[in-house]
Amino acid sequence: MPPTKKTTAAKTAPKTGSKTGSKSGPKAALALPAPKKSKAAAHKAESADSAAAAETGAAPGQRTVAVSGSQSGLGLAIRRHLEAAGVRVIGIDLPGKGAEVEADLSKPEGRKRAVQGVSEACGGTLQGLVANAGIDAKDSALTFGVNYDGAVDLLKGLQPALARAAKHGGAAAVVTVSHAILISPGVKVRAADALLDGKPGRARLWLGGGNPYPVSKLALARWIRREAPGADWAGAGIVLNGVCPGAIETPMLEKDLKDKVKGPIIRAMPKPLGRNSKPEDLAGIYEFLLSPQARYIVGQLITADGGVEATWRGDDWPRAWDISTARFLINLFGNKKSR
Ligand SMILES: NC(=O)c1ccc[n+]([C@@H]2O[C@H](COP(=O)([O-])OP(=O)(O)OC[C@H]3O[C@@H](n4cnc5c(N)ncnc54)[C@H](O)[C@@H]3O)[C@@H](O)[C@H]2O)c1
Q1: What CATH superfamily is the domain 28-338?
Q2: Candidates 252, 266, 281, 308: which one to mutate for ligand 1, based on the most atoms within 8 Å of Cβ?
Q3: pTM score, two decimals?
C-alpha cells in the first residue's frame, strides 16, 4: 500500500508494527460487484479512479476504511485483519499513538480534526468506518465525550464520504458498543436519553454517582437504532450496525481488572466458551459487517460476548413486541413517518 498522502490532519505512516504495505487487492469478501458500464464510461471511471487513488494513496479498486482507536486492543486487531484482506486503513487515535489521523475524540475540535483528516486522506470517498475508540473512566464528561460524541460526531461528519462511496457500490459503518448495555443492572436510562437529546450536562445530573460507561454505550446503541434505517444511512445506501463485545483481553480490561469493584465482578462473569475473548476473535465480525454479504443487516446490535448475555438474560430475549394490533395498524397505514 502506498503511503497516505500528507494532509494537515493526516500523517503518513502508522507505527503499529502491523503490515500496512500490502500490495494485494481486496479479498472477495470485501470486494463489491462492479456495476455494468459502457466501454467509454468504464475507461473514464478507471482514469478517475486511478487519479483519485494517486491522490489519496489507495491502489485502484482498493477499499478504504477508517478505524478509530486503531492503535490498541480491538481497534488494532480490526486494523490488522482488514489490512491482511487488502483494505487500506486510515487509523484515528490520540496524538502520539502513531495513527494516520491524530485527534482527541473527547473534544469537539478533536472530532472536527478527525473528520477533516479522514476526509482529506480518503479523497472524500470512504467505503467503511469503524467507530471503535472508547474508554471506561470514572470521569463522566470524558467518558460521554469519547464513547458517545466521539463516535456520533465521527459518523455524522464522515456520512457524506460514505454516501459518496455508497453511490458506487456500497458503504458500511460499524460501531463498537458493549454487552454492558444488556447485562448491567440499573443503567441510568434518563441519562442516556439526555445524551441523545444533546444535553450532556443534564445527562451528568441524571447519572448522579452512577457508572457513565454503560450510559454512554446505551445512548450510542439507541442512536444506531434510530439512525440506521433512516434517509441518511440505509436511504443513502450505507448500512449501520453495532457490535456488543463482552470482556476482551485488551489494555482496557487489564485496567478494569485492577479496579477493586469492577475486577471481582468481571472475573466472576460466566464463561461458556471457557475464556474471555482476544481482540483477534472479534475482528472478523467487523470485516463481515463491512462487506456486501451483510448488506441486509441494518440497525442491529450483534452481541459477541461468548454467551454471557444468553446465560443471564435467557428467555428475557427475544421479547415479543408490546404493541396492540390497533397501534400496529395505525403505524403501518396512518403514519407515513413510521415507515
Ligand atoms: N476490552 C473490553 O473488555 C471491552 C468490552 C466491551 C466493549 N469494549 C469496547 O471496545 C472498544 C475498544 O476498546 P479496547 O478494549 O480495545 O481498549 P483499548 O484501551 O485497548 O483501546 C481503546 C483505543 O481508543 C483510543 N482512545 C481512547 N480515548 C481516545 C480519545 N479521546 N480520542 C481518540 N482515541 C481515543 C485509545 O488510544 C486506544 O487506541 C471500546 O469502545 C470499548 O468500550 C471493550
Answers
A1: NAD(P)-binding Rossmann-like Domain (3.40.50.720)
A2: 252
A3: 0.88
